[in-house]
Amino acid sequence: MSRxxxxxxxxxxxxxxxxxxxGMAVEPGSIVVAPLGPRQLLGVVWEPERLPSDAEVGDxxxxxxxxxxxxxxxxPALRRLVEWTADYYLAPPAAVVRMAxxxxxxxxxxxxxxxxxxxxxxxxxxxxxRAQALERIGDRQGLIRxxxxxxxxxxxxxxxxxxxxxxxxxxxxxxxPYPVPDPDHAPPTLADDQQHAAGTxxxxxxxxxxxxxxxxxxxxxxxxxxxxxxxxxxxRAGRQVLVLLPEIALTEPFLKRFHDRFGCEPVAWHxxxxxxxxxxxxxxxxxxxxxxxxxARSALFLPYADLGLxxxxxxxxxSFKQGDGxxxxxxxxxxxxxxxxxxxxxxxxxTPAIETRQQVTLGNYAEVKLPGRYGxxxxxxxxAIDLLEHKPDRGRWIAPPLVVALEETLARGEQSLLFLNRRxxxxxxxxxxxxxxxxxxxxxxxxxxxxLTRRLACHHCGHIEPIPRACPECGEEDSLVACGPxxxxxxxxxxxxxxxxxxxxxTSDTIWSPxxxxxxxxxxxxxxxxxxxxxxxxxxxYHFPNLxxxxxxxxxxxxxxxxxxxxxxxxxxxxxxxxxxxxGEKPGRVFIQTHSPGAQVMQALITGDADAFYAAEIEARQxxxxxxxxxxxxxxxxxxxxxxxxxxxxxxxxxxxxxDGMHVYGPAPAxxxxxxxxxxxxxxxxxxxxxxxxxxxxxxxxxLDWPAKVRVAVDVDPYSFL
Length: 722
Ligand code: ADP
Ligand code: ZN
Prior knowledge:
By secondary structure, this protein is an alpha/beta fold. The protein folds into six domains: about 5-75, GIY-YIG endonuclease; about 110-175, Winged helix-like DNA-binding domain superfamily/Winged helix DNA-binding domain (Arc Repressor Mutant, subunit A, Orthogonal Bundle), CATH 1.10.10; about 190-370, P-loop containing nucleotide triphosphate hydrolases (Rossmann fold, 3-Layer(aba) Sandwich), CATH 3.40.50.300; about 380-420 and about 485-615, Rossmann fold (3-Layer(aba) Sandwich), CATH 3.40.50; about 425-485, no CATH class; about 630-715, 2-Layer Sandwich (Alpha-Beta Plaits). A seven-stranded parallel beta sheet has the order 11-12-10-13-14-9-15, sandwiched between helices. About 45% of the residues are buried.
């Protein structure tokens, strides 16, 4: 090939053609360095027929490629995934392929460092220092500095030993190999129904065929143990596995569990990695050496050499949807990756998404069920507390029956969890004198008081301010009042009720790293915490046998705003958090505080009749033509210049094509009318399922132009309706 089409890592540009200089070998998938003006850009060689270019350049005007990365070319399955993702989510292919090349250091090839070790030769002139050094170093190997530290001598002593041949340099790859998980390290004895489920999933791995399966089992039924058997099967075959988790906070407990089962940790991939860890993981994944990777959604685009299984754990989680950049949903992309790789995909959940249920109904996904909790554990009984009947005192949020339950639980030496999905102390602060409300200067949002850090914070853009002593509007001192509860305020209330109780707050403000999560787990397991007050961060994954009481402070909270998934999300969230109770031998109890105990979703939670809830919800979606029976796409127009954003949004609205089965709503100011200093307008496209709505939008927006200060973002299958 003397001419190559290259997808360069610049989302504003289409594919470009280059000349392949003599002596350079490239093929589709090769990662190359290409000149662009005076700069150099990374890019990936692509099949020209799959990536049409609108600017064909003659052979004589082509510039030479400058180099090829010494890593394996991106495989066809990953290239097809990039194309599909770009197409489906209306994103530039360059923005998608960038997610695959997520460590530039890894592309620079192997990197070696010089380490030193003893040769066994004993020098003739053996000073006491030299003797001490050789004795302490023994058969260890390391940098000069490290050996000097081990031996407690100066660097000079080590260099001297090197000069006379008692110590020698060795070149080592800085990316040390990963340990290989042992599929037979500590397998559990599975119960019959678990055995049956595990057998089915393991057979799919052996079959090496695309097969999505919903692994549906209540919390504590052993879903993890069961899909670990499929993981073991892939390891036995020497094939790679990807396990996707919805949140990096869940990584730490997962690593520990994996270690218990397979004897070593898997490779972790998330945004918290240092660049050397990133590099090491990327290279091991590309070479096939890293057998099991656990990661956040970005792990989906890594260049696995031989993927044999994908698991999406807590597959119903909405955090799998990426909120900016390429708006992909990791669950859907995982299924597509499985399709291109021809491997099974397991979607594990106790509360599957309606979309997933529907795929099972249609026969597109298989289903494996685990009917009950493992062992003696029983699902906890859920009771509603009617807040109209059992009103908490003024300025309090925990209703009397829940206070009694907390008291009983404490007396038994057991642990409780209070759930409220609101960080901080209070969601709104106002001046009691003049009524001034603290609003973010950059967003249409109230500033949230955080007492622990003594700040007001915007949860949308991150803007923070100190809490002022006086009202900035009227100047009145000490006039600010907190309205409504956040977790910090509930924790205060608990401490006032039970001064003896040891209380922990668990939110992304307190558990912001895997190490913090590990510390929290350690304290819970050691019984050093009596009552946890937490946000959705504590609703999943954790397994604390002594936790027997769960209280939901405001079960109605998620129903506010009423987007199409509000009821579903409330059901999932409360089922998940309920699932934290009674996971051991002691039975659990769950109380949900609500103003509408008769609402359908509350009834479904109390009776535990998930099937009835899903049936009703699916029917309602069907009537409304909502997903999965129809599609939505949001077009968000934003600019710092409000008038400009509005004009463009209206122009887009006017240009909307008349298409059968498609309806365009808006433009209207988005519910979050200002975000990070940008004014936002929104159009909502609603279409029947069979319509290629992406194609329509591509043609529609492609024919329009707007000033550079306006940004137009398309969100296909939106989850956030803000
Ligand atoms: P899920 O993922 O469905 O919530 P887990 O896999 O976390 O369930 O299992 C819940 C608890 O029960 C865990 O502590 C797990 O180790 C334990 N468990 C499940 N099945 C078995 C088994 N067959 N043998 C031993 N322990 C099991
Ligand atoms: Zn803000």
